[in-house]
Amino acid sequence: MTPEVRDKVRAAAEELSYAVSRNASGLVTGRTCRVAVVVPSLRPWYFASVVSGLGHALHEAGLDMLVHQVGHLEDWIHTLPLRHNSDALVAVALELTEEQCAHAADMAGPVVLVGERLPGRASVHIDDHAGTAGATRHLLNLGHARIAYIGSRTDGGMSLSSTARLNGYHEAMTEAGLEPWTVTKSPGPGCGELAVGELLSHQSPPTAVLAESDNVALGAHRALRRSGVPVPGAISLMGFDDHDVSSALDLTTVDQAPQTLGRVTGHLVADLVQGRRPSDTCVELPVQIVPRQSTAAPRKRRTSP
Amino acid sequence: MTPEVRDKVRAAAEELSYAVSRNASGLVTGRTCRVAVVVPSLRPWYFASVVSGLGHALHEAGLDMLVHQVGHLEDWIHTLPLRHNSDALVAVALELTEEQCAHAADMAGPVVLVGERLPGRASVHIDDHAGTAGATRHLLNLGHARIAYIGSRTDGGMSLSSTARLNGYHEAMTEAGLEPWTVTKSPGPGCGELAVGELLSHQSPPTAVLAESDNVALGAHRALRRSGVPVPGAISLMGFDDHDVSSALDLTTVDQAPQTLGRVTGHLVADLVQGRRPSDTCVELPVQIVPRQSTAAPRKRRTSP
DNA sequence: CTGTTAGCGCGTTCAC
DNA sequence: GTGAACGCGCTAACAG
């Protein structure tokens, strides 16, 4: 085929806006150029950010992204037409068992976990432990000693991520020779408020509060505001996520760069799908403290009269 | 085929976790059971909500969702492998020309616009005009007269949605016999702050501010807080979107239920794809004022000495 | 290096 | 009613 013929063909293809059918080519190559992403919901800021980064990275690699929102873990794999329909599966923030992963891998090829980890499975996640440990030390360095940790806990226990965050706080407190003070409430919009309610009813409330997530911190902030407790005047408040609301509320927090998480995952998946050997199949990304105006040195103790 | 054989086949399929290849079936039927969604980005709360609702509705209809994030309008259609790869196209918040729509429809089948509208094209959007008109009346009813509108404007002009919002404000003000007062800044995080800066430098600042979106209101709120202007004490502030931050900041706003927008779009697309006649191909959804604590009656004018 | 052909997995049709 | 054969659009392997 001469170059000029090539050009004519190209021009014709352009003219008719021809595009190869990945449907048909996938049929013969066995590769669909599609990656299935399973996520609890697209609505929360964190998930949306991860999937956004993922989408950009996959697009760069020439892969399309199928997004599935699945609430219940049990039936998710049955409702998904996976076999022959995607080259890989990305599970965002899903606590899967090894069996579920194996089953999924059997049907959908490589499985990559985001925000969770499972021994032997490819995963991308942040260093939750270091995040809360660093956050706790930030508060310690400001001079706080009575630092409470507020978080969510379902009846079924805590996710790996939640556990790691709690442990980071515990470790930093213990290292400093201080007693950890943990309050957990059931997840949901009222979580932070309820936790603050409990803390404020204590005879000697904390001078600083570290929340498991910005969402929890948000509720806490509202409860403190409504109770007339100045932040950071009386209580310093710190979140975890760097949610949009955090900058809105000038909330000190821990940036976990979810979009980067997604982007790194995308590159990893592309390597896996396209037969390249990824340098590392289990990536842990660092986090970063973002100091803002909701944390300050504790008010001097009023000397008793 | 006897029923018992059917059952045995079903059992075997279950056992081997067999799933029909939409790839192959699409090849022969011409239907891919896939819908392409094009959205500027998944990160902003509004887009994530729309796509989330869309995903749920499509899933119910047995359709998979391909998500494409595209920033630049010009090349978006070339980068997307559309032909034979999706049954329909949903464009979220993209200002398309009729030519682009026609081209897209030629390649991807039915095109549905969300958050925008184009004569003759299927679209789902909210009543922006009624939203800002209602919001303005809310402020008028509280007793405000000097009500400013702040929004964003690029060099290229305003989107239909922005224009509709501005017009709603204009109309309500004119109806009340008051002079509209509009301040627009270039979009971005600094938009609200800059607008408030301009308003506060006026010799007689407004007593109420209506923002084009919660994002703008957010910046405005921050600027007011930093300037020590009490909200709603000195200035009432109102947003538009019912973003998460709005409830966090107790901001009065206009709920536009983006997830419902997505869900309605999903049903419409499913009807179109599956050959049903949709009842209406151009849906306008109502909005609702959400009163919170950032709006109140204006402070009594201090009588001059 | 170019042109031809088989067959990927499935739905439809046509013959039985 | 059941079953076989064709072809959807494409790629890979092979023959010229």
TrEMBL record, chains A, B:
InterPro entries: HTH_LacI, LacI/GalR-like_sensor, Peripla_BP_I. CDD domains: PBP1_LacI_sugar_binding-like (cd06267). GO terms for molecular function: DNA-binding transcription factor activity; transcription cis-regulatory region binding. Residues 1-29 form the HTH lacI-type domain. The keyword Transcription regulation applies. It comes from the Bacteria. Keywords: DNA-binding, Transcription, Transcription regulation. It holds the Pfam family Peripla_BP_3. The keyword Transcription regulation applies. PANTHER family: LACI-RELATED TRANSCRIPTIONAL REPRESSOR, TRANSCRIPTIONAL REGULATORY PROTEIN. This is LacI family transcriptional regulator. It comes from Nocardiopsis kunsanensis.
